[in-house]
């Protein structure tokens, strides 16, 4: 291998045991099931799939906020497992869906943005002030806005604060987990454009998560489609949109061609049987909802097949 990938995950798996009542048997959830991929430096991997398919679990594993049950994560060629927290923070940062939940309401914007710098220790006050001002400027917030509190800003401005905080340590990699999903449709495009611009200017690598395929179309160089914890298709963005190979990708794509794709969770047109990660169907896990399933699909698990167009996990592809 020449240059190390910005992110590499190998055989990543994460299980949860959930007890819903004192007498209920614990449910065993496999949220991420043997996922492997790599993201070259400077590119954007879009990860899409319905709610509950494991996207946020994958994000938290890559950010080191969750321990894998199996497999490993390498960031910039280094194992995440043994990495010091402060070194990790300088390398990889998150932007989450709900900026209100992730911003301390009692602190001023400039103090919120300064937190990662303060957590590093040994950075002088002047330097902190200078870098906070630079980060606010980058995301299009004024110094005046820096003196306000989160409640005094709009949703879009709060997400700009979260982005400034993610960038203040000048990381190389940003994990964006549904960064525009909590925003009004009109504001979503502004934040998407800002993220795209920052990536170009700063040479960042993104893992960009959305439940909506339309959101990742313009920002992602490559797209991975998740279903019940597995990546069922992956490929270069233009190819995946022009010629989807997995029936689930085709359903997702059809759903975003409906009149108002920016609103809420897209209707994937696959009926009411919502997938349950505590109860994964045998054979192909998509078979109960697959419009083109054949008898073999219920009996035999498809293996991932890789070629120059990417990866697909389907008997018929
Ligand atoms: N901390 C947790 N404890 C128990 N179950 C969890 C936890 N985090 C996620 N899960 C379960 O894992 C599955 C995937 O969740 P998540 O990664 O949040 O999916 P997504 O982000 O795609 O909506 C869901 O069934 C969810 O309930
Ligand atoms: S393996 Fe069968 S059920 Fe699964 S996606 Fe392909 S056709 Fe559908
Ligand atoms: Mg999520």
UniProtKB/TrEMBL annotation:
<dbReference type="GO" id="GO:0015833">
    <property type="term" value="P:peptide transport"/>
</dbReference>
<dbReference type="InterPro" id="IPR003593">
    <property type="entry name" value="AAA+_ATPase"/>
</dbReference>
<keyword id="KW-0813">Transport</keyword>
<dbReference type="InterPro" id="IPR050319">
    <property type="entry name" value="ABC_transp_ATP-bind"/>
</dbReference>
<protein>
    <submittedName>
        <fullName>ATP-binding cassette domain-containing protein</fullName>
    </submittedName>
</protein>
<dbReference type="Pfam" id="PF00005">
    <property type="entry name" value="ABC_tran"/>
</dbReference>
<keyword id="KW-0067">ATP-binding</keyword>
<dbReference type="InterPro" id="IPR027417">
    <property type="entry name" value="P-loop_NTPase"/>
</dbReference>
<dbReference type="InterPro" id="IPR017871">
    <property type="entry name" value="ABC_transporter-like_CS"/>
</dbReference>
<feature type="domain" description="ABC transporter">
    <location>
        <begin position="16"/>
        <end position="253"/>
    </location>
</feature>
<dbReference type="GO" id="GO:0055085">
    <property type="term" value="P:transmembrane transport"/>
</dbReference>
<dbReference type="InterPro" id="IPR003439">
    <property type="entry name" value="ABC_transporter-like_ATP-bd"/>
</dbReference>
<dbReference type="Pfam" id="PF08352">
    <property type="entry name" value="oligo_HPY"/>
</dbReference>
<dbReference type="GO" id="GO:0005886">
    <property type="term" value="C:plasma membrane"/>
</dbReference>
<dbReference type="GO" id="GO:0016887">
    <property type="term" value="F:ATP hydrolysis activity"/>
</dbReference>
<keyword id="KW-0547">Nucleotide-binding</keyword>
<dbReference type="InterPro" id="IPR013563">
    <property type="entry name" value="Oligopep_ABC_C"/>
</dbReference>
<dbReference type="GO" id="GO:0005524">
    <property type="term" value="F:ATP binding"/>
</dbReference>
<comment type="similarity">
    <text>Belongs to the ABC transporter superfamily.</text>
</comment>
